[in-house]
Structures are given as C-alpha cells and as structure tokens.
Amino acid sequence: MPSPTRSTRSRTKNPGSQSALRHLNQQRIIECLLAGPSTQAELARQTGLSTATVSNIVKIMQDAGLASTEPITSSGRRALNVRLNSNGAVAVGIDFGRRHLRVVLASLSYHVIAEESVLLPLGHHAEEGIQAAVGVLDRLLASSGVERSALVGAGVGIPGPIDRRTGTVAQGAILPEWVGINILKRLEEALDLPVFVDNDANLGALSEVTWGPHSGVSNLMFLKIGSGIGAGLILNGVPYYGNVGITGEIGHATIHEHGLICRCGNRGCLETIASTTTMIELLSRGEDRPLTPGDIVRKALERDSATLRVVDDAGLAVGRALGNVANLINPEVIVVGGPLAGLGELLLDPIRRGLIRHAVPVIGETTTLTMSSLGDRAEALGATALVFQHAGIRRN
Amino acid sequence: MPSPTRSTRSRTKNPGSQSALRHLNQQRIIECLLAGPSTQAELARQTGLSTATVSNIVKIMQDAGLASTEPITSSGRRALNVRLNSNGAVAVGIDFGRRHLRVVLASLSYHVIAEESVLLPLGHHAEEGIQAAVGVLDRLLASSGVERSALVGAGVGIPGPIDRRTGTVAQGAILPEWVGINILKRLEEALDLPVFVDNDANLGALSEVTWGPHSGVSNLMFLKIGSGIGAGLILNGVPYYGNVGITGEIGHATIHEHGLICRCGNRGCLETIASTTTMIELLSRGEDRPLTPGDIVRKALERDSATLRVVDDAGLAVGRALGNVANLINPEVIVVGGPLAGLGELLLDPIRRGLIRHAVPVIGETTTLTMSSLGDRAEALGATALVFQHAGIRRN
C-alpha cells in the first residue's frame, strides 16, 4: 500500500530535458564520490562528462552543502579536489504510527546520529502528531549538536496510501484522522525543510535495500502485516509507485469471494483473515481485555494451541496471496515485517507453505522468504534513505 | 508469462562499470540523433558528455552500421555531422506460435519494410520452426532488397516462459516440443545474427508502448488470453523481467481453491476457467468438431446465448484476477490481446466489472482497460522493438 510524493522517478522521455539530465549527471558524480574524494578532472574521466559539466554540478552541490572542494596539486598540476560532506548533510527520518512516532537523524554514510521514539494517544489528530515530531526533532538536534543548516530534508512515513495526484492521505489509511490532509504541504511548513512523504510499507522495502541486508537485490517486496496488510516494492532496483501512487495493496486481495466485509468495501479480502485486528478478534473471546500483537507473539512462543492455529491460518492465507503476487512479479526476496516479526518461523512456515502451494513451481522454489531484521526502525530508516535518494545518492 | 534472454537491464550497481556507462552514453546520443542529424560538438553540448566520449561512441556506432558521418562546415568551422542510418539498420522480428510463424523486417524509424506469415503444423518440432523462419527471412530479404549486412539483430517471441538462468524454454510452455531447448544459441547459429528472445506476452507489452498507441505510458500490462493466459509488464517505462525471468503468470492465479487441476499442477487457476481451451471445451459439447477461437468470436457476435455466457464467465474471472494485480502494481493501462480480441466490448465489459468489483476503489476507477489494436502482429512488431532496445534505441 504505497504512495510517494515528490517521488516521480521519471524516465527521460524528453532527451533535451536539462533538469532530468542534470539530475542524472549529478547522480553519477555522487556515485563516484561515494568511493572517496576525487579531483574534478578525475570525475570527468570516470563519468565521461565534460569538465565544464562536472564543474557546474560540483558548484551546485557545494551550494547545497552536499560537497566541498579544496585546491591540491596532482601530478605537478593544480587541481580541485571534491569530497562529499558527511557531517554537512544529514537526513531526518520520521515514522508516524497509530500510537507512536519515531525520529532518526542519519548521515550521508548511512550512520544513525540520533534517534528517539515517543508514544502518541490512539486516535490523535494529524496536527498533534506533526507538533510532536517538530518537538522531537528539536530535542535531537540539541542533544546531537547537529546544525539545522546541515539538514538536507525530511523523509516521512505514513501508514496509509497517499494519492500522488493530490499529495493527500487517501481513504483506507490506518490513521483515519489524517485522511484528506495535504501532509506534504503541512509538514514542509512545520519542519521548514524539503519533505518527501511515502507510505510505511514502501519505506520498509527501501530500508531493506539500503540499511538492511538486501542491498544487492533488484526485485524485493516488503510485506507489512499489522492492523493493515500492505506491501512496498523495489523493482529493477528502484522504488515502484505505479500510476497514482497506490501500489502493494495485497491486503485487499480477494481470498474468499463471499467472505467478511472489509473496510475497503469488498468481501473476503486478505485483511479480513490475516490482519492483527482479525487475529486479535478471534483470540480475545472470553478474555478480560483485547489482546495486543505482543500478546499474540508471546502466546504463540508459549505454544498456546489456539494462537498457533490462528497464526497458521493467517500465514496460509498470506502465502496464498503471495503466490499470486510472486507469479506476477517474480521477486528475488520477500521480506515480512510488522509487529508479528517476533513470531519468526511460526509465521514464516505457513506463509511459505501457502506460497509454494499457489505459485508456479519454478517461482515458488526460487523466491526467498525472510523476516525483516530492522524491526520497528525499518520505516524511519527507510525515510532517511528516501531523502538521500532524492539528493541523487543511492547506496547499492 | 515472461522471460528475456540477453535482456538484463541491469542497474548501474558498479558506477565504474565502463560497458554499462558506454551503453547509457550511447543511448543518450541516439536519443538526440532520433530528432535529426547533428554535429559531434552539438551532441556533446546536448548530452553534457566530453567531445572525446562522443567521438568514441560515434566511431563504435559507425562500425556497427548504426550511424554515418560526413564533414561539414558549421559557423565557418569544420565539423563532423552524424546521422542515424535508417536503411542501414534493420531489425528482424520473429513470432513463433503453436501453428504459425510471422517474420517482420523493420527500420530504425519503426517502419515495416516487409512482412510474411506462414502456417506450421500443430506439434511441429522446434527445429522445423527455426528452419521455416530462416526460409521466410531469406525470401523477405530477396523481395525487399534489404542487404543482410544491414540486419542489426533478430528479436524472437516464444509462447512460453524462458528461464533467464539457462536460456532454455521452461516447463509450462504452450509449445511442449520446445521445452529444454537453448533457443537463443540455436537461433543465433541458424540466423547468423545477434538474437534476443522474449516471451509473447512481454513482446505484446513492448509493442504497445513502441508500435502501439500507448507510447507515453510508463506502467502498462499486456494480457494475452489464448490457450494460455499470460501478461507482459512495462514498469517505470521499461520491460520488467523479475528475478529468473518468469513474470506475469496471471493464468495461474488461484480463483477456486478446489477447482479443476491445471497443467501447472495447481488447482482452480484462472486458465482452468478463462483460457480459450476451456471455453472451447465448454462450447464444443455436441458439436461435430471442436470449435476454434474464431468460432467463439463469430458465435458471440451472432449473440449465441451459451457463447455469451461462457465469455461473460471467463471475463469476470479474468477481471477478478486483474483486480488483485491492479491492487499490487497500479498500472495506468491494461491492454487485452490474443485471438479473442475481436470480441471487443463483449469481453472487455465483464473483465471491467470483475476488475472494479475486486480492486480497491481508487485503483479500479483510474485503471484504463482496452483491447489491443495491433492484433496478431503485436508479438512480431514487439520483437523488432526488442532489437532496437538492445541497440540503445528507445521510442517513447
């Protein structure tokens, strides 16, 4: 369940488009500089760009605080040495949840400088969440000594689809209080920074191929199982956003044609069978208070038989949906994340059985299924990667 | 149901990779030249590349017969003018079917120079098909006057998945006689040309965004409904091949958990409900001979009620599977092709109802569903586009 805003990875439809070309050229130069400082002449040689092009782009990067230069002597000749500013370029990652908020400061070299997570009241209004984020960011800047001028932008994760056409949180979000708000505009005002918004599952996928262990993977799906079920996609090495920015809505795959009514208005969607909300409903009968996702993990690890059955049923249904997905996009890796990640093989095993049962054999055999190792930091870390991506900095 | 071979659109993982960089730079130069001839100095200015880089690439293109140069005087100074060879660079497109073979010769400017389609016996061996293709190509060269030296390569469509890891036709192909054959190697020997193989549905998708009316579309799915049901994907503007090259296997989406056994070994797959094979089985009871796909189209257009019902049921099932697909990849356009294309709205209407019923509302509302306008030429035309793609020539 994705969405980007400001995330238009446009192909170079118009070869003459100077800004698209400049962006591509800058990305090449940054890729060279990630390996270490280099002279302008050497950058021109490595990229095939003219020295005038290199010098223009270096100037722009210098003005943006991304790079610095110093005159040196190379082979007896005067040259200009260029280096990326690692302390001089810091990204903010913000993850908004239903009842929490996490803020991370990260350097260009993918190092966490500071991090804080706070609880928010259930049903809080968007504005309340935004003000809390501003407060946490101020505290992190003060405690870490990072200058505000070093911030290159903020990446923000929202647990719901964002309509690219309007920049607003769309219907179907797990945070109903945020629906219809132009989140991008409001956050840019509040943070006074360039802001890049994306949905939590997309950021999970991005974090796996940047901060996580899957940096060599071109085609990856991150599946978040929580109160909603959504997927983020990395296809051909880049985040995939589709036509209007709403992708990975695997929670609304039809499993039972005449099943329960879903919040999306359809029937028998995967979410009506395998979301934590449904699992909690099934397992809370006769309990004093509703269970939490943490309770499900604990009881399953204690081998409570009803919990194991509910987890198994949910996993099989997820696996069936994944089988159809794998048949379509043939990912190399599917990473499962969300509050049930602590279940480990207890959840992965039925998912794998469902996947293999429903996928075309060669696809079932070659798809790696694994649990996320980034835990509840995945979205905030992915949000910092979103900022670097837009600055033209990939880490692969 | 896709597969490419030689089709590795790798991302530039290693920024220093000279061949990847050369390919990218060549693509930029060709994109400029598609607008018309240009001097080397002008090419350097437009692309930001150094004049040395431009001159190297032009030399390589000249040697490959893709471009030619002539000295001119520009603003009183001597310059080298570069033009793409349109007659000098011809692509061969070959489409192998169960009982037909089509060969097309196309120029760089996407103009068909010559074309021939021949029938092949049902159950023919791969070698028989390859020899027939060699014969048709020779005839087309003779009749059109195109020199063999002008051929830059051959694109070949196969109605089945091709395993990228081995270059062989994989299990599940509609042409069982071709399974296990290293089609790429055999064709390169027989044709004495660089060969690019892809599956028919992928080529259908490629033809829609090159030869067809959808050239501005970044995210398109081509759905071929025939004896098999498979899809080709254009995502972020380029053909999508996934991990092992087998994608778009929507024919094996589970519709009925306990439905009929499918040729893939699963149950209740879409193909067991909506392929032409199933439709023919349902409608041939009591007939003297089995119907053909053409008969289905004719009888439906004559408003035969049983045929209309079978088409409607098939369309609804296809639409249900498409709803789940659209939820995942949010395409802008879904194009339906194959031997039932003549049904027009009789088939599109139930597909559309199924799609809207099963997709998340905003996705159902914004996905365009349309019939292919390229008919049975889609695959062969797409095969020529595959050759130009590999020469770095896109048409968007």
From TrEMBL, chains A, B:
Region annotated Disordered, chain positions: 1-20
The organism's superkingdom is given as Bacteria
Q: Record's InterPro entries?
A: ArsR-like_HTH, ATPase_NBD, HTH_MarR-typ, ROK, ROK_cs, WH-like_DNA-bd_sf, WH_DNA-bd_sf
Q: Domain HTH marR-type: where? A: 33-77
Gene3D superfamilies attached to this UniProt entry = 3.30.420.40, Winged helix-like DNA-binding domain superfamily/Winged helix DNA-binding domain (1.10.10.10)
Q: Where is the signal peptide?
A: none
Xref: PROSITE patterns: ROK
Similarity comment: family membership: Belongs to the ROK (NagC/XylR) family.
Q: What's the protein name?
A: ROK family transcriptional regulator
Q: Which organism is it from?
A: Arthrobacter humicola
